Amino acid sequence: MEYAGGLAFISALWLLVLTAKGSDMSASEGHTDATTEVPWREYRENGLKRAQALGNRGPMRFDDDGVLARDILEAYRRTGFYVFTGVLSAAEIAELTAEFDAVLDNAPVQQDGDVDKHGRPVRFPGYYTLSQRDGTENGSDEPAIVGLVSHPLMMMDSALRTYGHPQILRMVASVNGADFVPFHESVFHKGAGEGPPTRWHQDGRTHWTDDGIALEQADGTGKTHGFNLSVSWSHCTPENCLWVVPGSHRRWRLANGGAFPPITERLAEAVPMTLEPGECGMVNRSSLHGAYPNRSAERRITMVIGFHKRTSAIGASTTNVHAFPRPGATKHITYSEDYVLRRARMIPLAIDARRQHFPEEAPYEYAGSYIGDGAWNEEARAQISREGEEYWQRDITL
Ligand SMILES: O=C(O)CCC(=O)C(=O)O
Fold it and tell me: Taking the model in full, what pTM does it have?
């Protein structure tokens, strides 16, 4: 998940917004793309077939020692992504959707505005990424389209609780080690008929050799860029979902002056990562991925959360594009232990928030260390959202 317009690397979402109106590509039945001249229907069916053959989809299964089944880890490491089915309950999805719809209803009418379409003050004015509707001018009264909401853990208790989901965190520990640490969180909203594309990109920018070979080894050891977990609250179809190029996480396309293809190009080797509500798509941040503009009748909502190996984060020097209210800014940074452990506090806070809401569920026991109090209460809520000290100020781009 990469949005900000960095120097060598321009963000997915930022460009997504910038290219949304300029793109003439439509992921709709019968359309023929100018670049590939493959009819959408054929491209979609081929993609679905190839996705099904990858063997990287199914429920979370754990061995007796609590580690994710070996064949799941193998398939994730081979293909660079994995779809977990049946993770969130319908009741949890309903809570997420209701809270998110309230966040959308309170969106600013224009980027940088602080009033919503009802004339009410926006609660979190700096956190929305908007694009203009086709055919409207900047500054028109027509509300702009919300493409992304950044830092949902601060605005939606349901999102915080999902972040503390015990199955998800057990899975994360299997991939990143028991002392895993956070990355960043946001909600992608691809509105029906008007969802902007996400351009083809690889997120990882830090742990490559000079020639663009992944420091992450085939068996998952070595420094990694972590993964983005798209937690789906909607039907993610080939028309509106993320597409991934299997196996592309081993080599960085920007190395040696390389470039990413434009999203107007239908990559023959890409496959759609379709998701039903409650399913989760884990994508290695080094995988090449993107989404075509959503011209379908169904909106797509995915909350992207992510985690890193602690050893890949502490001491890493890189360009951070996530520790800002919304995409668009960058800063050079070396992550200290203090920075990382303060951010890691969001994990026990989320677990505690979830324990209070779902008392009958066995909570995850986080084995990593963190700085701060892990009890979720009104004081903690105030601390993580205090202006200038918000928890996301320590997001960890790698
Ligand atoms: O879901 C999308 O369209 C973009 C998500 C993304 O770029 C990511 O997960 O890295």
Answer: 0.91
